[in-house]
Amino acid sequence: MPENSRRVVLGVTAPTSLGLMRGLPEHLAAQGWDVHVVSAPGPALESLGNTSAVTVHGLTMDRDPAPLRDLRSLVAWVRLLRSLRPEIVFVGTPKAGLLGTVAAALTRVPIRLYHMRGLRLETTRGVARLILTLLERATFGASTGAVAVSVSLRNRLIELGLTRADKVVVLGRGSSNGVDTTRFRPAAPGMPVDLRAELGLNRDVPVIGYVGRIHRDKGVQVLLEASAMLMQRGIDHRIVVIGRSEDPVIQKMIEQLPPQKRPLVVGPVEDTAPYYHVMDILCLPTFREGFPNVVLEAAASGIPVVTTDATGAVDSVLPGRTGAIAIAGSSISLADQLGLMLTDSRVRVEFGRNAREFAVEDFSRATVWSNTVQYLSELASTVSASRG
After folding, report:
1. How far apart are CA 83 and CA 94, in angstroms?
2. What is the DSSP secondary structure assignment for residue 245, as one 8-state letter?
3. Rounded CA gap, 123 and 381, in Å?
4. Integer Cα distance of 307 and 325 in angstroms
5. CA-to-CA distance for 20 and 24, rounded, in angstroms?
6. Which among 312, 311, 332, 342 is positioned nearest to 323, based on CA atoms?
7. Is 17 helix (H, G, I), strand (E, B) or coil?
8. How many CB atoms lie within 10 A of CB 70?
9. Who's near 130: CB < 8 A, 6+ residues apart?
């Protein structure tokens, strides 16, 4: 470790989740930190290690509870932290959060932070909810502090008794990693590729976009029901869905719709940025979030958003300024809010302009990273002072 450098270990469970912190490890390294990143092995982790001043460590971790394999993973975490002896362990996603904070406690890492990006237990019941609750409490118990990515998520954690109010903070206005406001920006005049035409979309029909997993937790079924109501009211529109199907029930619902009422399901795409330019509104009818990245991407692209009052989502829109908020799970409420925006193009334009300003001012990567570096630096300084 370079002289005067502070060592931090960042961690997520799966390498696919490294996108949640894209650019942050490199930014911390550029600020003089000795940065180590942990996840299960995979190409994304290898790529991070090959292209940056960051050291990576592949530790096998299962997303779901698996006692024997989890114990082996915990031992691997303990061995790693004993060898690294970092000042800070900053881990997110449930399994990496649990294993990383417990291992850090066992190896006496002075600062053990849980990066709380969402509360999976909110949409579970029965035994599954009990198990997830116990695991979350164990993670908070092993941590010295936590960073929640939204104010409503912090409030929900306290309300459920998962942690104390003095143990969890929100940095700035929240967000997991901000948004790249250069990549996601309003469409330039005279763009060379007309994606609307390529997708077969009528220029005169407003487009409601959805970006994300096709799953019940995201409320896609509510959007389908709201769309049917809008059609009954004579409000013309087309839904475009960008994302991977993870729910056969919803997939069947889509396939059974008449062709003229069926959403255009594009599927997963490598780069979502151009697709926001075909949308007039982004709709995220979710039941739970931490802080939805797709809302920030749409906002940065100058697109107004209709989302719900679910945890996390409610923080991502300024009602009456950048979009609207419907009642989670209510297709009537969602149809009402979408209808108001679909029938007034001037409101859509104004809200889209405001949304871009909102994203740039409060959620740019530079802003979110600056908040993170300042917070970690202040905590590391307390360790140095205590050791001095």
Report:
1. 24
2. B
3. 39
4. 5
5. 9
6. 342
7. helix
8. 17
9. none
Per-residue pLDDT of 309-350, as tens digits, reads: 999 999 999 999 999 999 999 999 999 999 999 999 999 999
- Cα end-to-end span (Å), the chain: 19
- Cα–Cα distance measured from residue 211 to residue 321, given in angstroms and rounded to the nearest whole number: 21
For the sheet with 55-58, list strands across it: 55-58, 33-39, 6-11, 88-92, 111-116, 145-148, 168-169
Residue 20 half-sphere exposure, CB side, CA atoms within 13 Å?
23
Question: Tens digit of pLDDT for each residue in 192-237?
Answer: 458 888 899 988 999 999 999 999 999 999 999 999 999 999 999 9
**pLDDT for the residue numbered 3:** 43
Question: Are the C-beta atoms of 140 and 100 separated by less than 8 Å?
Answer: no
For the record, the structure tokens of 120 come out as: 């999976």
Counting every residue written for the chain, the total comes to 388
Helical ranges in 145-202 per DSSP H? 151-159, 195-198
> How far is CA 238 from its chain centroid?
26
Burial 278-294 (b: 16+ CB within 10 A, else e): bbbbbbbbbbbbbbbbb
Q: Would you call 251 exposed, middle or buried from its count of C-beta atoms within 10 A (0-12, 13-18, 19+)? A: middle
324-to-221, 262, 267, 294, 347 alpha-carbon distances in Å: 19, 24, 26, 15, 11
Rounded to 5 degrees, what are φ and ψ at 295? -65, -40
Q: What are phi and psi of 33, to 5 degrees?
A: -85, 150
3-state secondary structure of 74: helix
SS3 88: strand
| Token duo for residue 13 | 């469970």
For 72-92, give one letter per residue: b (16+ CB within 10 A) or e: ebbebbbebbeebebbbbbbb
Contacts of 361 (CB under 8 A, 6+ apart): 367
**Residue 386 near residue 44, CB atoms below 8 Å:** no
Do residues 137 and 114 lie in contact, with contact meaning Cβ atoms separated by under 8 Å?
no
Do 285 and 220 form a contact (C-beta atoms < 8 A)?
Answer: yes
SS3 label, residue 246: coil
Neighbours of 133 (CB within 10 A): 16
